[in-house]
Known about the structure:
Layout: H1 13-26, H2 39-46, H3 50-62, E1 66-69, E2 73-76, H4 82-99, H5 104-114
Antiparallel strand pairs: 1-2
Helix pairs in contact: 1-3, 1-4, 2-3
Amino acid sequence: MLLTLDLNDARPLHEQVAGAIRRAIGEGSYRPGDRLPPARDLAAALGINPNTVLRALRDLRDEGLLEFRRGRGVSVARRADGRALLVQRARELLDEAKKYGYSREDLITIVEELT
Length: 115
């Protein structure tokens, strides 16, 4: 799993990790039943605290995307629904727009121009 974090992103790291995992599931990199790497390995690869990764995994478990099994690790419970994936991407787009000084209304105007 190739996850990256944006250190300039204002969102908390656990939300960024959860979003990256959600996206990987939604795009098919992980299917229901697939096991995720251990939280320690993910944390080491990202250079963050393992508790941050665990918090992201718990959030995704609470959403029903992941399941924790004692002795078997964390696996994908179901595929991310399209709406959840779009909401995640829309949040990221709003955050990016704010960095460049665009408001929510400006972004809506841009999207309307595209349709």
